[in-house]
Protein backbone atom coordinates (compact mmCIF):
# COMPACT_ATOMS: atom_id res chain seq x y z
CA UNK A 1 0.00 0.00 0.00
CA UNK A 2 2.83 2.35 0.85
CA UNK A 3 4.42 1.64 -2.53
CA UNK A 4 1.17 2.54 -4.32
CA UNK A 5 0.81 5.79 -2.39
CA UNK A 6 4.41 6.92 -2.83
CA UNK A 7 5.28 5.60 -6.32
CA UNK A 8 1.97 5.59 -8.19
CA UNK A 9 -0.03 8.40 -6.62
CA UNK A 10 2.81 10.64 -5.49
CA UNK A 11 2.17 14.01 -3.82
CA UNK A 12 0.16 15.37 -6.76
CA UNK A 13 -2.08 12.31 -7.06
CA UNK A 14 -2.53 11.98 -3.31
CA UNK A 15 -3.74 15.58 -3.11
CA UNK A 16 -6.70 14.59 -5.32
CA UNK A 17 -7.33 11.17 -3.78
CA UNK A 18 -9.03 9.55 -0.83
CA UNK A 19 -7.37 6.28 0.20
CA UNK A 20 -9.29 3.72 2.27
CA UNK A 21 -7.18 0.83 3.55
CA UNK A 22 -8.12 -2.42 5.30
CA UNK A 23 -5.35 -4.98 4.91
CA UNK A 24 -6.00 -8.72 4.68
CA UNK A 25 -5.21 -9.24 8.38
CA UNK A 26 -7.94 -6.78 9.47
CA UNK A 27 -11.18 -8.17 10.96
CA UNK A 28 -13.80 -9.25 8.42
CA UNK A 29 -16.24 -6.52 9.47
CA UNK A 30 -13.60 -3.84 8.92
CA UNK A 31 -12.68 -5.23 5.49
CA UNK A 32 -16.34 -5.26 4.45
CA UNK A 33 -16.98 -1.76 5.76
CA UNK A 34 -13.88 -0.40 4.00
CA UNK A 35 -15.39 -1.36 0.64
CA UNK A 36 -18.78 0.12 1.49
CA UNK A 37 -17.17 3.32 2.83
CA UNK A 38 -15.16 3.67 -0.40
CA UNK A 39 -18.31 3.74 -2.53
CA UNK A 40 -19.99 6.14 -0.09
CA UNK A 41 -17.06 8.55 -0.46
CA UNK A 42 -17.17 8.19 -4.25
CA UNK A 43 -20.90 8.94 -4.23
CA UNK A 44 -20.29 12.10 -2.20
CA UNK A 45 -17.97 13.52 -4.85
CA UNK A 46 -20.17 12.28 -7.69
CA UNK A 47 -23.18 14.07 -6.19
CA UNK A 48 -21.04 17.22 -6.05
CA UNK A 49 -20.61 17.04 -9.83
CA UNK A 50 -17.17 15.40 -9.91
CA UNK A 51 -16.05 12.63 -12.25
CA UNK A 52 -14.70 10.01 -9.85
CA UNK A 53 -12.30 7.13 -10.58
CA UNK A 54 -12.90 4.43 -7.97
CA UNK A 55 -10.26 1.68 -7.70
CA UNK A 56 -10.95 -1.34 -5.48
CA UNK A 57 -8.60 -4.21 -4.78
CA UNK A 58 -10.35 -6.50 -4.46
CA UNK A 59 -13.96 -7.63 -4.74
CA UNK A 60 -12.80 -11.15 -3.88
CA UNK A 61 -11.55 -10.01 -0.48
CA UNK A 62 -14.86 -8.21 0.08
CA UNK A 63 -16.67 -11.47 -0.70
CA UNK A 64 -14.34 -13.47 1.55
CA UNK A 65 -15.05 -11.06 4.40
CA UNK A 66 -18.77 -11.52 3.74
CA UNK A 67 -18.29 -15.28 3.80
CA UNK A 68 -16.62 -15.13 7.20
CA UNK A 69 -19.40 -12.95 8.59
CA UNK A 70 -22.15 -15.08 7.08
CA UNK A 71 -20.77 -18.39 8.30
CA UNK A 72 -20.18 -17.08 11.82
CA UNK A 73 -23.75 -15.76 11.95
CA UNK A 74 -25.11 -19.20 11.02
CA UNK A 75 -25.81 -18.85 7.29
CA UNK A 76 -25.59 -22.13 5.38
CA UNK A 77 -22.73 -22.33 2.88
CA UNK A 78 -23.91 -22.42 -0.73
CA UNK A 79 -21.72 -22.10 -3.83
CA UNK A 80 -18.13 -23.07 -2.97
CA UNK A 81 -18.70 -22.17 0.65
CA UNK A 82 -20.07 -18.68 0.00
CA UNK A 83 -23.41 -18.03 1.77
CA UNK A 84 -26.30 -16.44 -0.17
CA UNK A 85 -25.78 -13.03 1.49
CA UNK A 86 -22.46 -12.58 -0.36
CA UNK A 87 -24.18 -12.72 -3.75
CA UNK A 88 -26.82 -10.28 -2.51
CA UNK A 89 -24.11 -7.87 -1.31
CA UNK A 90 -22.19 -7.80 -4.60
CA UNK A 91 -24.78 -5.83 -6.62
CA UNK A 92 -25.38 -3.54 -3.62
CA UNK A 93 -21.69 -2.64 -3.81
CA UNK A 94 -20.97 -2.64 -7.54
CA UNK A 95 -24.17 -1.11 -8.90
CA UNK A 96 -23.32 2.13 -7.07
CA UNK A 97 -20.76 2.94 -9.74
CA UNK A 98 -21.87 4.68 -12.91
CA UNK A 99 -23.41 8.02 -13.89
CA UNK A 100 -25.37 10.06 -11.38
CA UNK A 101 -28.58 11.97 -11.87
CA UNK A 102 -28.75 14.86 -14.38
CA UNK A 103 -26.43 17.61 -13.17
CA UNK A 104 -24.32 15.22 -11.11
CA UNK A 105 -21.00 13.61 -11.95
CA UNK A 106 -20.13 9.97 -12.46
CA UNK A 107 -18.20 7.09 -10.89
CA UNK A 108 -15.96 4.99 -13.10
CA UNK A 109 -15.29 1.82 -11.13
CA UNK A 110 -12.30 -0.47 -11.66
CA UNK A 111 -12.76 -3.54 -9.44
CA UNK A 112 -10.23 -6.36 -9.35
CA UNK A 113 -11.23 -9.99 -8.90
CA UNK A 114 -8.78 -12.69 -7.81
CA UNK A 115 -9.99 -15.87 -9.49
CA UNK A 116 -9.73 -19.12 -7.56
CA UNK A 117 -7.27 -21.50 -9.20
CA UNK A 118 -7.28 -19.55 -12.51
CA UNK A 119 -10.94 -20.57 -12.91
CA UNK A 120 -12.68 -17.60 -14.54
CA UNK A 121 -16.06 -19.25 -14.02
CA UNK A 122 -15.70 -19.45 -10.24
CA UNK A 123 -18.67 -17.94 -8.34
CA UNK A 124 -17.35 -14.45 -7.51
CA UNK A 125 -15.86 -13.80 -10.95
CA UNK A 126 -19.01 -15.10 -12.61
CA UNK A 127 -21.28 -12.91 -10.47
CA UNK A 128 -19.16 -9.78 -10.98
CA UNK A 129 -18.99 -10.36 -14.73
CA UNK A 130 -22.78 -10.33 -14.88
CA UNK A 131 -23.00 -7.00 -13.01
CA UNK A 132 -20.27 -4.84 -14.54
CA UNK A 133 -20.12 -3.40 -18.06
CA UNK A 134 -16.97 -5.22 -19.06
CA UNK A 135 -14.03 -7.23 -17.85
CA UNK A 136 -10.30 -7.24 -18.52
CA UNK A 137 -8.74 -10.68 -18.09
CA UNK A 138 -5.11 -10.82 -16.99
CA UNK A 139 -3.38 -14.10 -17.84
CA UNK A 140 -0.64 -15.78 -15.83
CA UNK A 141 0.74 -17.46 -18.97
CA UNK A 142 1.07 -14.12 -20.79
CA UNK A 143 2.88 -12.63 -17.79
CA UNK A 144 5.23 -15.62 -17.80
CA UNK A 145 6.07 -14.81 -21.44
CA UNK A 146 7.13 -11.34 -20.32
CA UNK A 147 4.43 -9.34 -22.11
CA UNK A 148 2.92 -6.61 -19.96
CA UNK A 149 0.20 -5.68 -19.36
CA UNK A 150 -0.62 -9.40 -19.33
CA UNK A 151 -4.07 -8.84 -20.84
CA UNK A 152 -5.81 -11.67 -22.65
CA UNK A 153 -7.35 -9.71 -25.51
CA UNK A 154 -9.68 -12.49 -26.66
CA UNK A 155 -11.20 -13.14 -23.22
CA UNK A 156 -11.53 -9.43 -22.35
CA UNK A 157 -14.93 -8.03 -23.30
CA UNK A 158 -16.66 -4.65 -22.90
CA UNK A 159 -20.34 -4.05 -23.54
CA UNK A 160 -19.78 -0.30 -23.81
CA UNK A 161 -16.62 -0.18 -25.95
CA UNK A 162 -18.38 -0.42 -29.36
CA UNK A 163 -20.33 2.75 -28.51
CA UNK A 164 -17.13 4.60 -27.52
CA UNK A 165 -15.36 4.14 -30.86
CA UNK A 166 -16.10 5.43 -34.33
CA UNK A 167 -17.08 2.85 -36.99
CA UNK A 168 -13.62 2.72 -38.58
CA UNK A 169 -11.87 2.02 -35.26
CA UNK A 170 -14.47 -0.65 -34.49
CA UNK A 171 -13.77 -2.38 -37.79
CA UNK A 172 -10.04 -2.25 -37.09
CA UNK A 173 -10.54 -3.67 -33.59
CA UNK A 174 -12.73 -6.54 -34.80
CA UNK A 175 -10.33 -7.43 -37.59
CA UNK A 176 -7.45 -7.57 -35.11
CA UNK A 177 -9.50 -9.83 -32.82
CA UNK A 178 -10.21 -12.19 -35.75
CA UNK A 179 -6.49 -12.41 -36.51
CA UNK A 180 -5.63 -13.14 -32.88
CA UNK A 181 -8.43 -15.71 -32.67
CA UNK A 182 -7.18 -17.51 -35.78
CA UNK A 183 -3.64 -17.51 -34.40
CA UNK A 184 -4.86 -18.87 -31.03
CA UNK A 185 -6.65 -21.73 -32.80
CA UNK A 186 -3.64 -22.65 -34.94
CA UNK A 187 -0.70 -21.75 -32.70
CA UNK A 188 -0.10 -25.24 -31.38
CA UNK A 189 -0.25 -26.82 -34.84
CA UNK A 190 2.13 -24.21 -36.23
CA UNK A 191 4.65 -24.72 -33.44
CA UNK A 192 4.49 -28.50 -33.89
CA UNK A 193 5.09 -28.11 -37.63
CA UNK A 194 1.73 -29.71 -38.47
CA UNK A 195 0.57 -26.76 -40.56
CA UNK A 196 1.79 -26.38 -44.14
CA UNK A 197 2.26 -22.73 -45.17
CA UNK A 198 -0.06 -21.81 -48.01
CA UNK A 199 -2.83 -24.18 -46.96
CA UNK A 200 -5.00 -21.27 -45.79
CA UNK A 201 -4.50 -17.59 -46.66
CA UNK A 202 -6.35 -16.61 -43.48
CA UNK A 203 -4.01 -18.66 -41.29
CA UNK A 204 -0.94 -17.42 -43.17
CA UNK A 205 -2.05 -13.82 -42.55
CA UNK A 206 -2.62 -14.55 -38.85
CA UNK A 207 0.84 -16.12 -38.54
CA UNK A 208 2.41 -13.01 -40.08
CA UNK A 209 0.41 -10.34 -38.25
CA UNK A 210 -0.42 -11.77 -34.80
CA UNK A 211 3.11 -11.16 -33.41
CA UNK A 212 2.93 -7.55 -34.63
CA UNK A 213 -0.42 -7.01 -32.92
CA UNK A 214 0.95 -8.59 -29.73
CA UNK A 215 3.95 -6.28 -29.88
CA UNK A 216 1.69 -3.25 -30.27
CA UNK A 217 -0.20 -3.95 -27.02
CA UNK A 218 2.98 -4.43 -24.97
CA UNK A 219 3.52 -1.43 -22.72
CA UNK A 220 5.85 -0.40 -19.91
CA UNK A 221 4.59 1.07 -16.66
CA UNK A 222 5.81 4.55 -17.51
CA UNK A 223 4.70 4.50 -21.15
CA UNK A 224 2.03 6.96 -22.18
CA UNK A 225 0.04 6.95 -25.38
CA UNK A 226 -3.10 8.09 -27.16
CA UNK A 227 -5.83 5.83 -28.49
CA UNK A 228 -5.86 7.63 -31.84
CA UNK A 229 -2.16 6.89 -32.38
CA UNK A 230 -2.62 3.27 -31.26
CA UNK A 231 -5.49 2.70 -33.70
CA UNK A 232 -3.46 4.30 -36.49
CA UNK A 233 -0.55 1.92 -35.75
CA UNK A 234 -2.94 -1.04 -35.63
CA UNK A 235 -4.49 -0.03 -38.97
CA UNK A 236 -1.00 0.15 -40.51
CA UNK A 237 -0.25 -3.37 -39.26
CA UNK A 238 -3.50 -4.73 -40.69
CA UNK A 239 -2.78 -3.00 -44.01
CA UNK A 240 0.31 -5.18 -44.51
CA UNK A 241 0.11 -7.00 -47.86
CA UNK A 242 -1.04 -10.62 -47.93
CA UNK A 243 1.85 -13.04 -47.35
Question: How would you briefly describe this protein structure?
Answer:
InterPro entries: ATPase_alpha/beta_chains, ATPase_F1/V1/A1_a/bsu_nucl-bd, P-loop_NTPase, T3SS_ATPase_C. By secondary structure, the chain is mostly helical.
Can you give a write-up of this model?
The chain has 243 residues and is mainly alpha-helical. It is built from 10 helices and 5 strands, in the order H-H-E-H-H-E-E-H-E-H-E-H-H-H-H. The protein has a 3-stranded mixed beta sheet with strand order 1-3-2, covered by helices on one side. The longest helix has 26 residues. The N and C termini lie far apart (49 Å). The relative contact order is 0.07. The model has no long low-confidence stretch (mean pLDDT 92). Pfam families: ATP-synt_ab, T3SS_ATPase_C. This is Flagellum-specific ATP synthase.
> Would you tell me the structural class of the helices and strands?
mainly alpha
The averaged pLDDT comes out at 92
Number of helical elements: 10
Computed over alpha carbons, the radius of gyration is 21 Å
Number of strands: 5
Q: Residue share in helices?
A: 40-55%
Kindly report how far apart the N and C termini lie: 49 Å
Strand order of the largest sheet: 1-3-2
Low-confidence regions: none
Q: Write down the secondary-structure element order.
A: HHEHHEEHEHEHHHH
Q: Which range does the strand content fall in? A: 5-15%
Largest sheet: 3 strands, mixed
Principal-axis shape: globular
